[in-house]
Write a structure and sequence with these properties.
Elements lengths: L5 H12 L3 E6 L6 H15 L3 E6 L15 E4 L9 H11 L3 E5 L3 H12 L4 E6 L12 H14 L5 E4 L2 H11 L6 E3 L19 H4 L4 E6 L8 H11 L5 E6 L5 H11 L5 E5 L5 H6 L2 E4 L8 H8 L4 E4 L5 H4 L7 E3 L4 H12 L5 H8 L4 H12 L7
Parallel strand pairs: 1-2, 1-4, 2-3, 4-5, 5-6, 6-7, 8-9, 8-11, 9-10, 11-12, 12-13
Helix pairs in contact: 2-15, 3-4, 4-5, 8-9, 8-13, 11-14
């Protein structure tokens, strides 16, 4: 038997290993937390020598141009979600990727059905990025039944199930009726992008410059983010502290939030800039970051703030903030929907000198390399042993 030795053997093994192809399945790459995570994962896997297909129902979104040049974008050109199965089956039969990472129900269940119909040996790992029991879809009887039934039927067939926090994993196990030990917790890799301050003022200048305290919130203007409570808390804080609030994000709650700000008399101190692809300069400039959500699967923005050394006040919502902040060690936790306690926590945080180095070090626990190692173990168990 011919033996391979030294560097030549390593080169041959490297060539073989880099043939592995990973497909990452998402609706699109619009400006959301799961989409940002997917881009981080795709780029890191590409850097490790994998062939990456970013399979999108529609090839659109703010994060498209952040993909590694070697990432191949597959546009299924799907207009309605119910049209997904046949194009996905066609892709699986034609390309036969070694592994698929399917994100966000119902794509997670559709991917598992698709593999069965395609009759390919592709490994499928499903990843859920939310705490489903609190999701708006699950608030209706029909919606909850659809989620529970499809997950219960399909998830046992997955080669791996990922949840983004311990709380989200516990919730998913109950909802889907799967064993808790079949779910792997992989915290979102949100520190893969470079985070640095900038030397020039950025818009809005009235928030950026001046002697006031700068408050920041990052996230879509949607009901589950509960910005209504944040505005009420900010109005209370303004009675004691000279502060201005900037919200980065867009959504269907903008008009009602603007109306609330006018009613509270804080419209001159509130700025809603819309979606910003790279919010890192704002994290560095802020004196405090606030997450007011009624529910989160993880809470990427908390880690992004910590990575900049910026103090955090967060609601103690299910499921990620308490885990990220280590039960309050690295940031203050307040009850969901309690404006007075949020205002008090904001004032206390602003009056306390932060240990910025400790905050930055905590953020490194959510590094991209640690997350990719864990995904690699599930997607490519022979190659990815850590």
């Amino acid at each position: 038997m011919l033996g391979l030795h030294g560097n030549f053997a390593n080169e041959i093994i490297g060539i073989i290993l880099t043939c592995d192809r990973l497909a990452i399945l998402l609706p699109d790459l619009s400006g959301g937390g799961a989409e940002r995570v997917a881009v981080n994962l795709a780029n890191s896997f590409a850097n490790r020598g994998y062939k990456i297909d970013m399979v999108l129902l529609s090839a659109r979104g703010e994060f498209l141009d952040e993909l590694h040049p070697d990432v191949n974008v597959i546009d299924l050109q799907i207009r309605r979600l119910r049209e997904t199965l046949i194009p996905l089956v066609s892709y699986l039969r034609r390309v036969q990727p070694d592994a698929v990472l399917a994100n966000m129900w119902p794509l997670t269940s559709i991917a598992l059905w698709g593999r069965t119909l395609a009759r390919v040996p592709t490994r499928v790992v499903v990843a859920e990025h939310t705490t489903w029991s609190g999701d708006p879809i699950a608030r209706s009887v029909l919606g909850l039944w659809k989620v529970k039934t499809t997950m219960h039927l399909t998830f046992p067939k997955a080669d791996g199930i990922v949840a983004v926090s311990l709380g989200a994993a516990d919730d998913l196990a109950r909802l889907a009726g799967v064993k808790r030990d079949s779910i792997t917790v992989i915290y979102n890799p949100v520190t893969g992008r470079k985070s640095r301050p900038v030397s020039v003022p950025m818009a809005p200048l009235n928030w950026w410059s001046g002697k006031h305290m700068r408050l920041l919130a990052v996230g879509n203007l949607i009901p589950i983010k509960d910005y209504s409570t944040l505005l009420a808390a900010f109005a209370l804080l303004r009675q004691r502290v000279d502060a201005q609030l900037l919200i980065l994000g867009e959504g269907n709650c903008r008009n009602e939030l603007e109306a609330q700000a006018t009613k509270l008399g804080i419209e001159g101190s509130l700025y809603m800039l819309g979606f910003v692809k790279d919010p890192s300069p704002y994290y560095h400039r802020a004196d405090l970051h606030i997450l007011s959500s009624a529910g989160e699967g993880f809470g990427n923005v908390i880690v992004e703030a910590l990575a900049a050394g910026t103090p955090v006040v967060s609601t103690d919502c299910p499921s990620g903030p308490r885990e990220i902040l280590c039960n309050g060690k690295f940031g203050r936790l307040v009850p969901v929907g309690d404006a007075s306690k949020m205002a008090w926590a904001m004032a206390e945080s602003l009056a306390t000198a932060p240990d910025r180095l400790a905050l930055k070090e905590r953020a490194q626990d959510f590094s991209i390399d640690k997350a990719v190692d864990k995904y690699e173990d599930l997607l490519f168990p022979i190659r990815g042993i850590h």
